[in-house]
Input
Amino acid sequence: MWLFVLLVVLPLVEIALFVTVGGWLTLWPTLALVILGGVAGLAIIRLQGQRTPAALREALDRAQDPARPLVDSALVMIGALLLILPGFFTDTLGLLLLLPPVRAGLRTLAARHGSVHVAGGHHRRGPGRPGNDDIIEGEYEVSPDDEPAPKRPTHLPESRTRH
Output
């Protein structure tokens, strides 16, 4: 259903808005607004790319959860991408995502209804792995037949050239 909305309904809404705004402003101001939105989106992506590592470092230095700066950065990036897409509906959504109160509301909504999935493999308990409380007792003895491992040479062979 979401794919249908993205591929069919969204372009129809954008076309209708282009026609409506173009009727009010005429062609060249309408195109200028679309181009200005794209340029603004690119500038925001560049700026956010520089701010995100600093925000993460600051959160970690203060021993705070880095999820908030990560989520804020992701929402700003999505907003900037929506500004880059040509159209007034996507520009409006992108501008809304740039507003801190909207991002805070989306963070709260995601925290209430979302879940966190950690990427990675399944960790099984087993010998030598953390979480294994089994203790295996045993005995060993060294037999005289066992030879120690050969020692590695501490010097270079004479056949090698030194520089």
Notes: Confidence is low (pLDDT under 50) at residues 121-126. The radius of gyration is 30 Å. The CA atoms of residues 118 and 146 lie 47 Å apart.
